């Protein structure tokens, strides 16, 4: 059993590593050399990464891949994706190519409002609180001017502040429910700074409100924080084509494919067990681009899944229909993203990813990310209703299995050739590599 350590964060990086490797590893030198292998030799770059978080001991790599040929609103994109799952980039590229020949993706940002809340306790009559709120509402705007000045100049800022009575849920519980437009910033810092100022104003002004009793003056702020539920920061992406244009490799008619596809999506709409996996496939595309562009994938995940459950039952984020011989497939998804602030101006690969995407505005990035999700979903459902998912998945996973066996370049070449004709399973690869090694 290791002992707790005091003052760990104050130790130097090398002392932290020494403590870690000596406390937890049977071979401290091996552990240390793995950690060091992932350091960047460019000291400035390494320091930048060290300072992103506390207690950095090394860098954690993910591959950054690209999926070309995405036609979005008649503009071509190559989409950067940071992800570990072998088949995701290949599937995105395949879907992009497929829709490139069928008019591409059409997208639209429906709304871009974000929400923050000050949660507080007040014990008194609601009508008095309402009078108080109406009186001090302009003060909220005034007291946050230093924070909102630049954002307002650019056309964003605080849209509205509402007082909400939540006493049906919890006695004495009220909210300031605030809507924001944060333009190209994800806006978390902006929103939270405004909210914390509102909380101060609320408490201070209550002390001077003549209609409040001594008890009522004592408003207790519980917390002030943005919401990652962003149902009004919404984007739509869609593809459509004639049903007969869906025929793939002559293995299935366009009509049969379209019908089976719509059935599969309908199942995800009504069956939560399927919906979660269906949406996970969407998030494969979404998270990969969100991560590559330095955005907060946990915020996006939380908001997206809450939205998927907005009608009281967890359901599919995408929808499909056949109407008048046309197949349409679309997604409507909440995405709070930024292309300025946060990591976007700091992480060299994030800057590169944004330049690759033609330096998008936040709204354009919402559109690109929604497309990545829809494309990924199209690829997954297409495989599921035709060949099954394992064929493509295992083909891409082959390299991982070969790497587990430390296969040489020649072995990889020979076995990739062999598995063009044979089904990839872990045991089939084990057998094939053993055979090859015995032979040579
Ligand atoms: C695997 O990462 C994602 C899929 O399971 C998605 C789906 O089932 O639609 C293939």
TrEMBL record:
Enzyme class at the top of the EC tree: oxidoreductase
UniProt keyword NAD present: yes
Pfam families given in the database record: HMG-CoA_red
Gene3D superfamilies tied to this protein: 1.10.8.660, 3-hydroxy-3-methylglutaryl-coenzyme A Reductase, Chain A, domain 2
Annotated keywords: NAD, Oxidoreductase
Pathway: Metabolic intermediate metabolism; (R)-mevalonate degradation; (S)-3-hydroxy-3-methylglutaryl-CoA from (R)-mevalonate: step 1/1
Catalytic reactions of this protein: (R)-mevalonate + 2 NAD(+) + CoA = (3S)-3-hydroxy-3-methylglutaryl-CoA + 2 NADH + 2 H(+)
Entry's EC annotation: 1.1.1.88
Recorded family membership: Belongs to the HMG-CoA reductase family.
Full protein name: 3-hydroxy-3-methylglutaryl coenzyme A reductase
